[in-house]
């Protein structure tokens, strides 16, 4: 899910559900105990500026986030890159109307659960589409003292039927809200090692993000770090009428 660009965005690791285009989500049987922690970057993270296509290069500059908050409800995993037959790792909130907010820049423990040993090529994230972030430094049109709010699946950017999101039930949901008046849509985001396979299975390109490496669970008590690749993801674009300070796409992986 690429924020404000209508194609896959930086999403992160959310409700057990029956999904259109894949089998029903099931609770994982007892197996290896897995803990997934979050991290801003890995040892040699690629800065966003190095991978984004040129766009007004003389005015667009990049920086790191000091804080990035997003609400999660549940995390599911699938061994198939097309995200079929998922199993639930853990429901983070006690009920469908609740969620847990994480600051992804603070290296939080996101989830702990028991799942069978295996290689999981898709992570299904049930989350809010409203996020908040604060730049680490002041640069360009970004102010490090200000918290910015973004409504990812907002009506103004998803006005046609080409780009859409599925919700927790697997059905398409209507976009709503704006950055100034955000509305919490319960979106489903997929992180997969093969984006084309997920799209071929019926998922929208808007909700699919490429996962740099699969989640490998091989032993009890395993700890895996989810690197959401947020280094250099804050973008100052003074020419933008809607988001002069934006949080751009990231490059998630496991290590």
Write a short abstract of this structure.
The protein has helices spanning 48-51, 195-200, and strands spanning 26-27, 32-39, 61-63, 65-78, 87-91, 100-103, 109-115, 118-120, 122-135, 148-151, 165-166, 172-173, 186-192, 208-210, 215-217, 222-227, 234-236, 245-247, 253-254. With 255 residues, it is mainly beta. The strands form 5 sheets. Strands 1, 4, 5, 6, 9, 10, 13 and 14 form an 8-stranded mixed beta sheet that branches.
Q: State the low-pLDDT regions, or none.
A: 1-30, 42-54
Query: Measured on Cα atoms, how large is the radius of gyration?
Result: 17 Å
Element-level helix/strand string: EEHEEEEEEEEEEEHEEEEEE
**Helical stretch tally:** 2
What is the molecular shape?
A: globular
Strand content: 35-45%
Q: Name the average pLDDT.
A: 75
Major sheet attributes: 8 strands, mixed
Amino- and carboxy-terminal Cα gap:
21 Å
Helical fraction: under 10%
Task: Tell me how many strands there are.
Answer: 19
Structural class: mainly beta
């Amino acid at each position: 899910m690429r924020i404000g660009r209508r194609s896959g965005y930086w999403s992160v690791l959310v409700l057990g559900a029956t999904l259109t285009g894949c089998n029903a989500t099931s609770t994982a049987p007892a197996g290896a105990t897995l803990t997934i922690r979050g991290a801003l970057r890995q040892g040699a993270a690629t800065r966003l500026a190095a991978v984004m296509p040129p766009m007004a290069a003389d005015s667009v500059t990049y920086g790191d986030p000091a804080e990035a908050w997003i609400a999660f409800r549940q995390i599911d995993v699938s061994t198939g890159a097309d995200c079929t037959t998922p199993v639930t790792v853990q429901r983070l909130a006690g009920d469908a109307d609740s969620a847990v907010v994480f600051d992804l820049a603070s290296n939080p423990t996101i989830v702990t659960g028991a799942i069978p040993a295996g290689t999981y090529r898709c992570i299904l994230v049930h989350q809010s589409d409203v996020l908040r972030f604060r730049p680490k430094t002041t640069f360009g049109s970004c102010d490090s003292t200000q918290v910015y709010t973004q409504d990812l699946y907002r009506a103004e950017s998803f006005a046609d039927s080409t780009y859409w999101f599925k919700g927790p039930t697997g059905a398409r949901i209507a976009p709503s809200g704006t950055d100034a008046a955000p509305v919490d849509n319960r979106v489903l985001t997929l992180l997969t090692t093969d984006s084309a396979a997920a799209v071929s299975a019926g998922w929208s390109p808007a909700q699919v993000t490429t996962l740099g490496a699969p989640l490998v669970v091989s032993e009890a008590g395993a700890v895996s770090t989810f690197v959401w690749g947020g280094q250099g993801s804050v973008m100052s674009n003074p020419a933008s009428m809607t988001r002069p300070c934006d949080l751009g796409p990231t490059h998630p992986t496991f290590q």
